[in-house]
Design a protein that fits this description.
556 residues, globular, Rossmann fold, YbaK protein, 5-stranded mixed beta sheet, 27% helix, 16 helices, alpha+beta, BirA Bifunctional Protein, domain 2
Length: 556
Amino acid sequence: MKYSQLFGKTKLEAPADADSVNAKLLTQAGFVDRLIAGVYTFLPLGLRVLKKINEIIREEMNAVGGQEIAMPSLHPREIWQQTGRDKTMDPILYRTKGAGDRDFVFGPSHEEIVTPLAAKYVQSYKDLPVALYQIQTKFRNEPRAKSGILRGREFGMKDMYSFHTDDADLDKYYEVVKTAYLKVFTRCGLDAYVSEASGGAFTDKYSHEFAVRTQAGEDTMLLCEKCKYAQNIEIAEAKFDDLQPADEEEAPLKKVNAPRGITIPENAAFHKVPEWKILKTVVYKLKGGFLGVCIRGDLKVSQKRLESILKEKVRVATKEEFVENGLIMGFISPIGINIPFIADHSIKHIKNFVTGANELNEDYLNANVGRDFVVREFMHLTDLELVCPKCGNKLSEEKAVEAGNIFKLGTKYSKDCNLYFTDKEGKKQIVTMGCYGIGNTRLLGTIVEACHDEHGIIWPKAVAPFAAHLVTLGGDEKVQEEAQKLYDYLRENDIDVLFDDRDESTGKKLNDADLIGIPVRLIISKKTIEKKCVEVKRRDSKEADLVPVNDVLKFI
């Protein structure tokens, strides 16, 4: 491809609204074009990369027995009502009406389509196991469409669904797919961690995310460098649950007189509860006002961690500021106070806290987050050292992008969609299911987040839009002639080349080559011609070499 003929050129600057590295670089380098937040056009360069990612995914899914199909994006609403997700996923569903005033949704996921499909063809245990996948566009009305193509409203996804006779067979295949996913990410040039996470709207079981470290990530992962163990911090913090009986129910909120001391031990002793049952609230002064932080009574807020999250210096509010905000030292609570609150993950799953009532010698019993008070966000706010449960190594806290996710769906959708099979004894049994997703467009953005420098993208070889970027320096006719010869020679040998044949300055061409990020840059100029060489430079190297023209193919 000659760059002069390519649709979609580089831009001098990234769009002002580019809110992430991938949004900035992909748009500026001419890979994508933003229509609205969360909706992008893939230009020729971007589509080339996406097709290579898709092919890697296909190869690995085929290798584990996946069979590719193509399901519709337009779904009758009644099948979503059948599973109950018409309500549970209502905030992100795009809806429309068809002929006869029939209601439809645009598919954010395909459990409701693939399960009835399987029910038409799975009759006997001889039909199982089977795995079906597709690579298709999804639609989700994301309220926070951001970070370029990492969180979109219209986006690409590979979703695979497996069907099994029992949990043991599902468990076995689940591990096979987990390994296949790691191969996908490795082939795409990424170092991915398998991370335990919540099942969200798909299952009440834990799922597994495939996390790639990058500051653009929306998730916080606890990572072990030694054994590659990883866990979403939200799930990790939920391990504090074992302090409390699993069957404890929320009790009614109750206000009581409490002539006690103001320390946590005094509070716990007065109410005859362990310190972890005390909801501790610390009020901090920020640039823009005050912020309340809720944490379990036996833990301490790490001010250093809080400042790192807020990206500013903070201090505990003074006595005068307590009075100014109507706060009573030792009796503060998030109930009925007009300042914003955040909380440590440790309080999320504890029921029936004891907390102050914002009046002297008055407390609340049975305070529950979500029912009696609301916090803006849960964060990891303690200095509690977390260690790997597998090898004992210290876990590091890292920002990460979720590049893929797999779930054990069990029998939920099988029951809703009447998916059964006949076993060897002729008895009717329910099919158990697994679900495996990779956002292919998100994966492209993740690669950029993980593989770039201050000059532009650094594409891993397997997914690069071209194998080499041929650049001519100077407008000399001989230079163009020799470059054309090399271009034709490489193409004849099945090397995909982007040939920058433009009449532009040296600086412009070299800057554009760095921005676009093709793995190998080839430069032809008067000097290289005189030496019968080509200047060759890898995108991930600062050094360039002079390589004889006849050896360029071998180098690539």
